[in-house]
Amino acid sequence: MATGSGLVLTAVVLLSMALDLVQMPMAYFFLLYTMIWLGNLCFPLMISYDINLLFKDPSLTIPQLIWHTFTNTISIYLVPELQNVFLMYYLLVVLFGAFRMQKRGFFIVGGFILLCYTTVMLVHQLSGAGAEIKEQSLISLFFIFMLVGVSIIGTEISSLRWALKKRNAEMNEVMKQAKEQAITDDLTGLYNRRHLMAILRHQQALAYRGEYVFSLCFVDLDHFKQVNDRYGHKAGDEVLQTFADIARNCVREVDFVARLGGEEFVLVLVQTPLEGACLVAERLRLSMEQARLDILAPGHRVTASIGVTQYRPKESIEETMHRADIAVYSAKNRGRNQLVSDHELEHY
Ligand SMILES: Nc1nc2c(ncn2[C@@H]2O[C@H](COP(=O)(O)OP(=O)(O)OP(=O)(O)O)[C@@H](O)[C@H]2O)c(=O)[nH]1
Question: Which residue ranges form the domains of the chain, and what is each CATH number?
Fold first, then answer.
């Protein structure tokens, strides 16, 4: 927009020359406007080469407005007859500030405009090129009034924009938190049952034809009721959180860990056949067995029973989960603190 406005300004000066409103040698015009355009083009170039990112305000609003104020002042100096047109351009410069500037910026740019305008008017008066002094004073007074008015409106628009931006950022943050809460379990930060089902449906869609494999590990902490009964519910919660951390560390970034509820958890191991899943499950079982739980009495270990199964093409998610459930049940029956894979189950 700034570059476009610069084009209009240059066109107005060129037109004034064509209409003989300004007597200026063509070479002088070219030299002056080449310099002005080198300045104008600096900004888009800086932005396209990311040099603007080195500055506190990467939009370079204040430097751009200062530069355009300066070039507009040169135009007034060259074509005093069209000063009223250029005065409007000053106001447009201030309005541009509404996109990014805050109060301080409006003071800087407004102050600079006043300085430039006063200087060029004085030069015109001294050289006799300006309007009659009464007429000029009236124009100047009205221009200052307009400049202050437009600056106030610009500040208002700008503060509305900043408030809106802040509100949007807050809304986005709240939405992000709400989305996260909808899919995670409050206590452990793991995925909740609802999201687990969504994950499994997605995995099922990938594995339905049989080229892609994934496995499930159902985990149930052993004798967890005793922990609650002996140390209290809060200690039980801490054990669940410790388990969640251990489980997260046992799987890869691409895998999923969810809490089904109570002391039951599920690991979804993507692109992993049964053998690989058994290795992960054993690593998890061992880590839990060796975990130091400072909140419990010395030597009190909390172990896990794990059922491992691989998704079989074309079966439903419920069938896979049922098989994993039977495997955990079997691990419990065999004495707990162990894993059972679906290979070891009869009829499955
Ligand atoms: N601290 C805590 N306890 C929970 C939570 N959810 C469920 N529990 C408790 O977990 C215990 C589960 O007990 P059971 O289902 O009998 O299982 P268990 O004692 O682990 O026995 P086995 O599974 O047979 O080894 C119950 O006492 C529940 O109250 C929770 O969020 N925090």
Answer: 2-176 (no CATH), 193-344 (3.30.70.270)
Contact 88, 26 (CB under 8 A): no
**Cβ of residue 306 lying under 6 Å from some atom of ligand 1:** no
- How far is it, in rounded angstroms, from Cα 42 to Cα 71? 14
How many H-runs (helices) and E-runs (strands) does the chain carry?
Answer: 11, 5
Residue 238 Cβ < 6 Å to ligand 1: no
For residues 187 and 243, the answer to whether their CB atoms sit within 8 Å is: no
Give the list of residues 6+ apart from residue 11 with CB closer than 8 angstroms, or none: none
Please give the order of strands across the beta sheet that includes 304-310: 256-261, 264-270, 214-221, 304-310, 339-341
Question: Tokens for 338?
Answer: 């162990």
The amino acid sitting at 174 is V
Q: Which of 227, 240, 241, 263 to mutate to test the pocket of ligand 1 (most atoms within 8 A of CB)?
A: 263
Is 0.95 topped by the overall pTM? no
Q: Rounded CA gap, 300 and 292, in Å?
A: 9
Q: What is the pLDDT of residues 169-216, one digit of tens each?
A: 999 999 999 999 999 999 999 999 999 999 999 999 999 888 899 999
- Cα of 85 vs centre of ligand 1, distance in Å, is 80
Instruction: Tell me the ipTM for this assembly.
Output: 0.94
Total residues belonging to the chain: 348
